[in-house]
Predict the 3D structure of the following.
Amino acid sequence: FIYSPIEKTHDREHAPMTTLPQGRPPFRADHVGSLLRPPVLRQAFRDHMGKRIDDAAFAKIQDACIRDVVKMQEDVGLQVVTDGEFRRGSYWGRFVERIDGFAIKSAVFKFRDDQGHQVDFTAPHAEGRLHRNKPLALDEFEFLQGITAATPKITLPAPSTMHFYRATDFAAKSAYSDVKSFFDDLNRIFREEIADLAKAGCKYIQLDEVAIALLCDPNIRQQVEAEGMKPDELVELYIDSINECVKGAPADVVFGVHMCRGNFKGHYLGAGGYESVAERFFEGTRVNHFLLEYDTERAGDFKPLRFVKGKGVVLGLISSKTPVLESLDVLKRRTEEATQYIDLDRLAISPQCGFASTVAGNPVTEADERRKLELEVEAARAIWG
């Protein structure tokens, strides 16, 4: 069930589209990246933060846990694996640590669940000019590719992560007086990281894009406007930023963008279908495929997929937020529904998001996680053969 018929440009602005060779990502069964940290690793994070273990001891525990979780992914039949983001406290935290100029402040938005419970969270804030003082994920990739025969995938937070959550107060005025100069530096950092990953042999990079997904939510759009920003201009800004980040990457590097409505201890940030951004985002973003959340009615219907041209879609039909195991028949039926708007051979399947965007993880067990990954492999075989 190799998913290969996605087209891409060699020069991502002008070259003709070509079909990916067989055996390259994305695959019929994929997953978004983060996986539940086992208890020993969660304790190691606490011990390292409390200075009860040193860097070497912490890395040793991470290495062992990554080996185990990679074997789990291989055992369930996945052809693409990640390190579970086991070296990260959160999906973006390591990047703030490794980019000079960033600090952490409170976000202007709140996570919530279906019962109305709200949770505060934090966000990056530029205190000074941004510089990449060391690789962001290169060490993750180098270890990962050395322990698996499957395709290793590296996830990076989309550039908008470093801007959106603080609204207009994304940077100190002494550091950046305007948005353009901020994104000029940020995009350069991402290009440098992608170049290093590609040089090391990384062929599959996923950008985790939350802000554009949230800008599908009418309530968040109102909040954004109240903060003094224009939602549609932000969408264009974030699309342009992704395109600047991937510009110049080697033609054999595959880029996916995961659209996420927020994922923290089973809570989410936004709701709403993709229709309001679909044409601009799906047609204008110069990547190979999109990994889209479709696990609940909050995601809307499949109609926006009609704007996906010459690219692929990984349908996030399996929930990482709940232990309830989806029905194989429902997964097959929903995939068939999507084919009203996009050809079956340009589709794949996955969970809607990671299982642990932070060390704490979602309210599911490792056994639940494994069953859901096994289910997607089973579904991929049943749907595509």
